[in-house]
Amino acid sequence: MTDLSRITCIEDLRRVAKRRVPRMFYDYADSGSWTESTYRANEDDFQKIKFRQRVAVNMEGRSTRSTMVGQEVAMPVAIAPTGLTGMQHADGEILAARAAKAFGIPFTLSTMSICSIEDVAEATGRHPFWFQLYVMKDRDFIERLIDRAKAANVTALQLTLDLQILGQRHKDIKNGLSAPPKPTLANLLDLATKPRWCWNMLQTPRRTFRNIAGHAKGVDDLSSLSSWTAQQFDPQLNWGDVEWIKKRWGGKLILKGILDADDARLAVDSGADALIVSNHGGRQLDGAPSSIAALPHIVDAVGQRIEVWMDGGVRSGQDVLRARALGARGTLIGRAFLYGLGAYGEAGVTRALQIIRNELDLSMAFCGRTQIDAVDRSILLPGSCPGAVG
Asked: What is the DSSP string of 297-359?
């Protein structure tokens, strides 16, 4: 058995996941669209932001605890909604939700998950979680999906706005991405080198999109994300739909996929409770700015009127601290927890969260802060990051 104490950073988990997860699913998680320039910028731009190290400051009594839309969290981090999580590891959404519950942070289930809303609710003892919604042409299906979320004790709805159509992801096309994998020669050869993954997958009945299977009508090829997107995702999505969903849902609403200050103002006007500065992990419009570069402008525009969060490129507790300093009340992690899941299942997700919180705690102390809610732009070196720092 692997001693997870020897796993000291998210990169360690990524390397193990790359060995253990079938190529098409690893590539699905660890890639972007077109040239992947935005995907790379999400990580690279964090590293340009430098901290002000402070000394002879009392570092006792540190706390990373905060709140996100009124919910107490062990650190200002939530698990982001990621499609096909249950293909990184069998029952992946359930395992990640359990890890998040034990750690004290929110878990967000994707519409395009392998485990269903009901699966996660049952496996976690109906512990509150969040659900991410895509707007589809079949409004009856959307209404039933919202009702299922309410019945499962979902406490916040994340509405994704930046995937009306699917960005071109070269690796997914070349790999013939599907869930479950089609029995092609290339796939069979790859699976033969992943016995642990195959054994775990044989132990579960959850191998396709269970939020959709048995619930949606008129879908020709449920195994294909691109096919489902082309058939059902609504390219006519508009702010009127956002208002309709907010009224239909009636609870906390978070809007995901904001990169522009004008859109942020519209998000505020829609009555949302929070917005997420996000470029979908660099998987939609290649050439768009990194999330961390867009964050300060949106915080300056609407940060006094709505909770502003961000995702994209967060691979460490230091990244969480940088985002918090630039005004993000919360952050979401996708790939960071997926690496842990693909590497070691639930224990790997827990280890990813431990790593991030430890890095956040130590870095905050070195910057002269003991409470995460006291972090602001003054912990950053002026001129080393996007936006006005002072």
From this structure: HHHHHHTTTSEEEEESS--SHHHHHHHHHTT-SEEEESHHHHHHHHHHTHHHHHHHHHHHHHH
Per-residue pLDDT of 249-265, as tens digits, reads 999 999 999 999 999 99
The number of residues making up the chain comes to: 390
d(CA 157, CA 180): 27
| Stronger pLDDT, 388 or 77, i.e. the higher one | 77
Nearest-angstrom CA–CA distance, 85 and 349: 12
* Strand (E) or helix (H) holding 252: strand 252-258
pLDDT per position as a tens digit, 36-68: 999 999 999 999 999 999 999 999 999 999 999
pLDDT exceeding 70 applies to what percent of the chain? 95
Identify whether 280 is a catalytic site residue: yes
* Identified catalytic residue from 89, 127, 170, 280: 280
Nearest CA to 115 out of 82, 164, 142, 71 is that of 82
- One-letter amino acid at 342 equals G
Can you read off the two tokens belonging to residue 176?
A: 């013939």
Closest CA to 62 of 368, 356, 297: 368
Residue 319 exposure: Cα atoms within 13 Å on the Cβ side: 26
What pTM does this model have? 0.95
Residue type, 323: A
Residue 172: how many CB atoms within 10 A of its CB? 21
Distance of alpha carbon 119 from alpha carbon 94, whole angstroms: 7
Write the DSSP symbol of residue 22.
Answer: -
CA atoms of 225 and 222, how far apart (whole Å): 7
Residue type for position 229: T
Helix (H) or strand (E) holding 155: strand 154-160
Q: How many angstroms from the chain centroid is the CA of residue 76?
A: 13
Q: Is 92 exposed, middle or buried (0-12, 13-18, 19+ CB in 10 A)?
A: buried
CA angle 233, 286, 38 (to 5 degrees): 120
Q: What gap in Å lies between CA 201 and CA 212, rounded to an integer?
A: 20
Q: What are phi and psi for residue 6, nearest 5 degrees?
A: -85, -10
CA 179 to chain centre: 20
